Amino acid sequence: MLLRSALLFALSWPLVSTSVLADANRVSTNLLIVGGTEAGWAAAIQAARMGVEDITIVHDGQWLGGQYTEQALACVDENKGVGKEGWGVDWHPMKRSFHRSGLFKELMDRIEAHNEKNYGSKMPGRPYHGPSTFRPAEAEAILREMLQPHIDSGQVILHWNYYPVAAMKEGRRLTGLRFTSVKDDDRPDLIVSAKLTIDASDWGEAIQVAGAAYECGPDPKSRYNEPSAPDDLADFPPNTMNPITWAMIVEESDGPTPIEKPNNYDGRNYVRTSKLSLAEMKGLKWDRPVRLGSIEHWPAAGKQSPRQLSIYTVRRIADGTKSPTGKTLILLNYMLGQDYPLSRLPQRVVDKLEATEEGASNKNIVEMNRAQRQIIFNDAKQHSLGVLYHLQNYVHDRAPDKANSFRNFHLSEEFGTPDALPPKPYIRESLRLKAMYMMREQDGRNSDGPTKNQAREAFARVMYPDGIAAWQFHYDFHRTGRAYLKDEGQAGPWIDFEQPGRNTRIVSDRSVFPLRSMIPIEMDGLIGTQKNLGYSSIVSAAIRLHDQCVHLGQAVGATAAVCLKHEAQPRKIPYDLSLLEEVRDGLCGSIDGATPMLLWPYRDLPSDHPAFVAVNRLAMRGGLPITRREVDFQPDAAATQAWKAEVVKLSLATKQIDSAPPKMPEGEMTRGEFAAAWWKLIRDLPDRPRKRLEPNDADADGIADVDDPLPYSKQATSWNE
């Protein structure tokens, strides 16, 4: 009943907010958020908590939550604190071993509390990959519940099923957008005038319509000098980017419930789907070199409950043998057969695209119109359904043990769509905003060895001075290339393959995200988030997951609040320490009842530690003695006199001291106790203004600010080692 109630509520809610549009298609707002993704949701809540009145969200669908909901990515891809909890396939200590924090923690706590109440466990799926799972419709209800107080207060207004088609500008400043209905109906266009706009959409549509500079597709090495970038793009077509995947939620049935054969089904597309498939089809000859491999299709009878590597358990949402429902629920988001690369599209897709516009098949998907994208989407849906059909038939017929066969599963009806699929694909890579600074692979790439096997924990070689969120992951490309059978070409079946430099074997060090990489290089009145950010394609592969999107949405929400309060453009904030600290304060420290967000990527600080805020705030402003390999703060260790003196020296150097400085707290204290006590003494002292030596080169080191990761330091890295 809970799921049905959540679904009905989700489907009926938009009708309320759109019913008035026929009489009022012109809106004036302080903050316009384009996209109800997880980042757009987080931006709205953060801005509202910081006092912004009149926030307008315009979304091209009818579900909040992006990856959590519309895209059905119902298994959170993270490591839950220090250790191996929640990881299986490729666990590594440097793959985001952070404690949860900020709005992400608030959301996950609610999801896990819901799971415990309704499924008997916080992690009812016990998946092999990722710690926490959920039903998308239930997650949507929780996301909505968290936003609802701000809707009830009138701070936030939502408009559903609209997308941007035109921009209003004054000089280089965006002042509003014109939206049209996604559906073929008679609703008038929606015109929104806004002091500030956040692009949290799936494909950076506000950025495109506004005419802000952006990049998409692969970057040549000449662009950012990245170690993994290709020297030229001859073998990297414009659509060489992280693939989309049409995820599926399947639920255990009382008996066989096979789906109909999908359009264009060819079993040879699914060589990697199971070990059984691979054993029978490994001899196929492809026109590109491919690396084969697979995993088990489903567990043996009576052995399905433990965490183990199979299609059945890798992203299981609920284990029916352990939950009160008695039904197993599984997310199918399977990189060994379900991913849909965007380069070298099948001939049937090419033909349909070319029928819309000459050259359309060679465009990056970002730059396609909605009708063109839909052609690709329709084919991607059929490909995903082919995975399920293959499991239910080809694998089922050949497997000796059929106890846990996917033939006994049906597509979940929670999305309310005609095909029972989620409304949108999982989108790993969008456009990349041409920002005040573009993050490069070399800024954060681990340099201990060529692969993650040699890597040791460290902070990134560049710790950006305008950091507003902690992050770490590996540079995670799913296979971006598409190979076809030698004798059939693009009219026949295909398999994905790994292009050079597009793999999962390189990890990042522990890093921070710079505010500059959210701000357009030229346009005012606009900030990017979700996956519309200022980084290279390679870096985008590492910063694209649930928690990262929530944190970066929260960061732009705080930035917007400070901009509106001071009537300042976003580009001013990274170079004004007082304003930057106000953003950080909103994220970590000043909002009663809010869970503070991790700013500096320490490994051992949970958000409820008494020193959490002080340590994060001191670290971000350079007020703590930190070495590159010292990734644990050790808050409960004794604070030595020398260490305390260094904290005082470093932190006071960032403050404007016009009289006697505060006295250092005396007595025996832990490092956490001292940090908290000292921060309390100095936090309200005025910040020392940063001096700019040249108009476009703050530190006069000969590197323009736009290309300088450390614009106030002549050092090439943040460390002397």
Figure out the total of helices.
17
Query: Would you tell me the structural class of the helices and strands?
Result: alpha/beta
Beta-strand content estimate: 5-15%
- Overall form: globular
Low-confidence parts: 4-24
Count of strand segments: 19
CATH first level of the domain at 2-219 and 429-438 and 513-572: Alpha Beta
Separation of termini?
59 Å
Structure characterization notes:
- This protein is of the alpha/beta class and 721 residues long.
- The chain has a domain of 288 residues: FAD/NAD(P)-binding domain (3-Layer(bba) Sandwich).
- The protein is built from 17 helices and 19 strands.
- Strands 1, 2, 5, 6, 7, 8 and 19 form a seven-stranded mixed beta sheet that branches. Strands 11-12-10-13 form a four-stranded antiparallel beta sheet. A two-stranded parallel sheet has the order 3-4.
- α2 links the parallel β1 and β2.
- α1 crosses α4, α9 runs antiparallel to α10 and α15 crosses α17.
- The longest helix has 29 residues.
- It is globular and about 80 Å long.
- About 3% of the residues have low confidence.
Task: Pick out its properties.
721 residues; alpha/beta; FAD/NAD(P)-binding domain; 7-stranded mixed beta sheet; 17 helices; globular
Any chance you could write out the topology, listing elements then pairs?
Elements: H1 2-18, E1 26-34, H2 38-49, E2 55-59, E3 79-80, E4 97-98, H3 102-119, H4 136-152, E5 156-160, E6 162-170, E7 173-181, E8 190-199, H5 205-210, E9 214-215, H6 221-224, E10 248-252, H7 275-281, H8 311-314, E11 316-318, E12 329-332, H9 347-356, H10 370-398, E13 409-411, E14 432-433, H11 441-444, E15 467-471, E16 481-484, E17 494-497, E18 511-514, E19 526-528, H12 537-540, H13 546-566, H14 577-587, H15 612-620, H16 641-652, H17 671-682
Helix pairs in contact: 1-4, 2-4, 2-13, 9-10, 13-14, 15-17, 16-17
